[in-house]
Design brief:
Layout lengths: L4 E4 L26 E6 L4 H14 L2 E6 L2 H11 L7 E4 L2 H9 L9 H6 L12 E13 L11 H4 L8 E2 L6 H14 L1 H14 L8 H9 L5 E5 H9 L3 H9 E4 L10 E8 L6 H11 L2 H11 L2 E2 L26 H15 L3
Helix pairs in contact: 1-12, 3-13, 6-7, 6-13, 7-13, 9-10
Amino acid sequence: MTPRLTVFAGLAAALSLAACSPATEPAADAAAGGEVNVYSARHYDVDQKLYEQFTGATGIKVNIIEGSAPQLIARMQSEGAASPADVFVAADAGALWRAQEAGLLAPVQSEALTTAIPENLREPEGRWFGFQRRARVVAYDASQVRPEEIASYEDIASPRFRGQLCVRSSDNIYNLSLVGALIEAWGPEKTAEWARGIVANLARQPEGGDRDQIRAVAAGVCQIALTNSYYYIRMAAGDDAGDRAVTEKVKLAFPSLDGQGAHVNISGAGVTANAPHREAAIRLLEFLASPEAQTLVSQENGEYPASPGVAAPEPTAAYADFTAHPMAVATYGPRQAEAQALMTAAGWR
């Protein structure tokens, strides 16, 4: 998508200023204003509400440039030290890692952020933080599959599901992060065997997005599909009657990785290395970590709050009773090149 510039002024009701103020800096008067430039690879309606609320609470105008994560990373690289970007936002830990590896993100020291965001959901040096979680799990045809048949990630690649699996392409970053996590847990040999099982189980060649996989299960193309949890939750709670009907037939299962819980990824953000408005950028990150912001995203987008003290609201709460694997999400990115090579070798297109 071609990046576009959208400016959101502060029209929404203000949240508590304390929720937005950096722990490391004195709270600025909201009337002081200012601006912050956000390069965002998230494209959800709820994000606009977040930025409007931040502006209403602080007087800081949020300027948004949208694009895919690779587009925005390339843009920041070409802009160099003169880049106007203050904050980079992405919907996957692997994408944040890519920006980090390109030298585009700077460490942030913030008690508010380290208190709100668990250690395994942020970069160790504070270059980025996860504000929402999403689980990569299994949508299944409840008339054909018993939940105990998909209790682990190994089960997805078992002979039980020969010709019965729908999945996205191997270069999809959600799949790359999942396979990177499997390499971290199992090593390359077992993960390569798993990937070969995935290819053997394909009902069709990989195509479409996560919602397409869920719809394919409902249509009888396959019995199971890999998907991110929030896509299913949004379909189940959305306005589209057809999608709601799909989720009456198709259910969601949370397989476990080595008995420690389901694989989770994050949406998150970091402050850029050359941020011209660094203080405002930190304030925005601290706002995104606030209970108010995490709750709003969970309610409207089906993602789970990152902070353990923030309960998922409905409709997300109906799908929140699962164990999340404790693996550090910062391990996914460094494994992605190996994951891609392994999946390609297995024939996963």
